[in-house]
Amino acid sequence: MDRRLFAEFLRNRRSRVQPDDVGLAGGPRRRTPGLRREEVAGLAGISVDYYARLEQARGPQPSRQVLSALARALRLYDAERDHLYHLAGEMPAPPAGPSREVPAGVRHLLDRLDDTPAYVIDAKYQILAWNRMAAALLGDPALWPDERRNIIWNLFTGEHSAAALADPQSARFAVECVAELRAAAAQYPRDPGIHRLIARLRAASPEFVRHWAELRVCVRRGSTVKHVHHPTIGAVSLECEVLDIAGHGQRLIIYSAAPGSPSAEALNLLSVLGPQWSPEGVSPQAN
């Protein structure tokens, strides 16, 4: 444990948390920025003397329970929490699960992409947010029940699953989805949503069980070409870019077409038409 750097990091992060951030009254007599030591100690459920000794680089090595409590009290981001653990000579605790809250900046970006289909998924392929063009191309998730907003569930249990899985492109996509779901289960071992989805898929789809038994694990990157058959604009071939949203366990999926191509012209037409169809539980082959 590097007590000096640990103490310095605690003092620095304590100074950055405002009383309003943690539901405390600010008051007029605060001579230093941020929280007082006794406030951090109270929020973390430890004694003021113990916390003071940690900030003075003369305390004992804190337990993992104390480190977790301090990270919550100081409102640390994931990377900051991991750094706190490392300074204390501990391996970081696994994250509880991917966030369901899409950052405001990403939502603004979705709205600005008015001619480009784009949406956000979490680590278990749950669709969290989408723009108007994604709804126009793939169907409107707002009209689907929550369980049908999961791409892997739709792929293996949807109305057209058998036909989709018989297609070589969709079959490869299914293998990749299952492998990434296994990786997500290991990355977020305490997330109930991931384990509930796996249990439902195992009960509903023999094809999923077959893939799950293969024990594949992968994390895919880069762009791929997706072929989408739309009831109004017909068949289009689109570049699919997958962008990680750092610190949230989410990814932004963007579809685009080469300028001047037939698919680009079809997307231009779709941007004028807007959402014209809303089949329930359509599985966007978007990842």
Write the layout of secondary structure elements.
Blueprint: H1 3-16, H2 37-44, H3 48-55, H4 64-73, H5 78-87, H6 104-112, E1 118-122, E2 127-130, H7 132-138, H8 151-157, H9 161-166, H10 168-187, H11 192-204, H12 206-212, E3 224-230, E4 234-245, E5 250-256, H13 262-273
Antiparallel strand pairs: 1-2, 1-5, 3-4, 4-5
* Strand-residue proportion: 5-15%
User: What is the element string, with H for helices and E for strands?
Assistant: HHHHHHEEHHHHHHEEEH
The whole-number mean of residue pLDDT values reads 86
- Count the E strands: 5
**In what order do the strands lie side by side in the largest sheet?**
2-1-5-4-3
User: Structural class, please?
Assistant: alpha+beta
**CATH structural class of the largest domain:** Alpha Beta
Number of self-contained structural domains: 2
CATH architecture type of the largest domain: 2-Layer Sandwich
Range of helix content: 40-55%
Outline the low-pLDDT stretches: 278-287
Q: Enter the CATH topology name of the largest domain.
A: Beta-Lactamase
Number of helices: 13
Instruction: Report the sheet with the most strands, covering strand number, pairing sense and barrel closure.
Output: 5 strands, antiparallel
What distance separates the N and C termini?
42 Å
